[in-house]
Amino acid sequence: MNNALVIGQYVPGNSLIHRLDPRTKITIIFFFVFIVFFANNFWSYAILTVFALASLFTSRVPIRFILKGLMPVWFLIIFTFILHMIVTKEGTPVFNIFTFTVYSGGILQGFAISMRFFLLILVTSLLTLTTTPIEITDAIEELLHPLKKVRFPVHELALMMSISLRFIPTLLQETEKISKAQASRGVDFRTGPIKERVQAVVPLLVPLFVSAFKRAEELAMAMEARGYQGGQGRTKLRELKIGKRDIFVYCLFIGVVIGLLFIRN
Amino acid sequence: MRSKLIEFRNVSFRYGEEQPWVLKDCSFEIYENEWVAIIGHNGSGKSTIAKLMNGLLFPQRGEIFIDQKPVTPDTIWEVRKDVGMVFQNPDNQFVGTTVQDDVAFGMENRGFTRTEMLTRLEEVLAAVGMPAYRQTEPHRLSGGQKQRVAIASVLAVSPQVIILDEATAMLDPKGRQRIMQTIKDVQHSKDITLLTITHDLHEIVQADRVIVMNDGQLWDEGLPREVFSKKDGLKEIGLDTPFISSLAEELKLAGISLTQEPLNHEELLEDLWTLHSRT
Predict the structure, then answer these.
(1) Is the pTM of this model over 0.90?
(2) What is the complex's ipTM, to 2 decimals?
């Protein structure tokens, strides 16, 4: 049961990437997603790939976790590759499939676009693999802090996220309990036509929602009793700190960006 | 004269205009550093009393004073600093994603500095016997452990009163025992007023004073021993007497005279084995 209760895909570890401030990770990944689209020749792709793979190896996350993250998008990557290969009509003709002529430029273009996808997914899944959901929440709260000036409810949003994270395992356990209770009363979740199986979910969802609302009400009361009155004047136990390693990684990344801008055509 | 910490003056409360009164003209006092147990069957108004003390509800009639301050919408944040509460459901009062985050929640609300939070965190987790669980997530804790965390988070902000509103009702007997032990330890080591609300007569044994509620009214008030001796009355208002009390009753009917109303096995045993030398 413990396996099912791991939230997100976080792989515990103590590497440089794990210990980076989550804000550093989020900002770098944010800009990385942009600059991937600036790459337009072999060397510019090479520099980005080296950066991404280097982060992967320093994180010491087993490769199979990355491959698992890539699984759902393999189809998309291959599809774009084929589409670009067929549609682009540049360079010299290489071979024919059915009525399409494949040009050398098309193959290159296909590779380039697939590479972009691959890099994007690699880097973003590296974030969720090395950062706990609660760290990401804290980082988002800090990063969105300036939006408070325009009355964006940053603190409330972060609190909502952290409470949801806290209650995911609780509600999962509850779902399991209710489904067992309903199964013992003869509800069949596993067999039968799809229509019946969908209907069987109703007696699962209704009690789950009822209890979730009840929980919410009690939680609100408990929070109030413990003196919660919104974000004003609140201090925090969890603390984010930009350290030497963060500055080092920022410098490295800026180096990569400058290098990329020089190399691209 | 001990100083009054909580005072209810002719308090009446109902949840809505058309609803029946949940509390009818209740008046009582609770003094500093005492342990008071409020007991009553379901719907006797005992949980409402707890919520009124914390400003989660306000009475329609009468007044409530906590440490001389009246409880009104303007003073609730002051009052909540003095009154800590532990609720019944261990899951629905756990706010943080880990034990330390949950214990810190109340301190964060009150704007404690980070260094202060860290020292208090260590202290209160030690007080409830859970220092090894700082980083543990709530779904890896048992109900009793969660309740101990809840007690720790209340202790962390050092209130004057701690109210345990049926805090052991959802636990197994072992968890219940450990919570009661934790509460006793805490009361011994800190100057704190304790208010336990329960429908279980077993839990009032260690209290200094007992308030029995029935149907929104104060039915009785006294030492646990005195309350236990009124078995017929207790049965009438729907409270089960503990086995030892029933046994003592039967012994008396059989003509065996006991020196006092026994509260537990040891007292009854003491009484019985010295019986021969007395007669």
Answers:
(1) no
(2) 0.84
Q: Where are the domains of chain B?
A: 4-230, 242-279
Which residue has 């301190």 as its token pair?
B107
Distance from CA of B82 to the nearest CA of A (A): 10
Q: Tokens for A239?
A: 């603390």
Searching chain B, which residue's CA lies closest to the CA of residue A213? B92
Alpha carbon separation from B180 to A65, A87, B29, B128, B250 (Å, rounded): 46, 75, 23, 11, 29
Q: Which residues of A touch B104 (CB under 8 A)?
A: 237
Q: For A53-93, what is each residue's pLDDT tens digit?
A: 999 999 988 888 888 778 888 888 889 888 888 888 887 88
Q: For the segment B162-211, what is each residue's pLDDT rounded down to a tens digit?
A: 999 988 888 888 888 888 888 888 887 778 899 999 887 777 888 889 99
> Is the Cβ of B108 closer than 8 Å to some Cβ of chain A?
yes
- 3.40.50.2300, 3.40.630.30, 3.40.50.300, 3.40.50.1100: which CATH number matches B4-230? 3.40.50.300
Interface of A with B in 187-226 (CB under 8 A): 214-215, 218-219, 221-226
d(Cα B248, Cα B255) in Å, to the nearest integer? Answer: 11
User: Is A224 in Cβ contact with B93 (below 8 Å)?
Assistant: no
Chain A contact set for B101 (CB, 8 A): 134, 237-238
Q: Among A152, A155, A171, A154, which residue's Cα sits nearest to residue A219?
A: A171
CB contact under 8 A, A222 and B93: yes
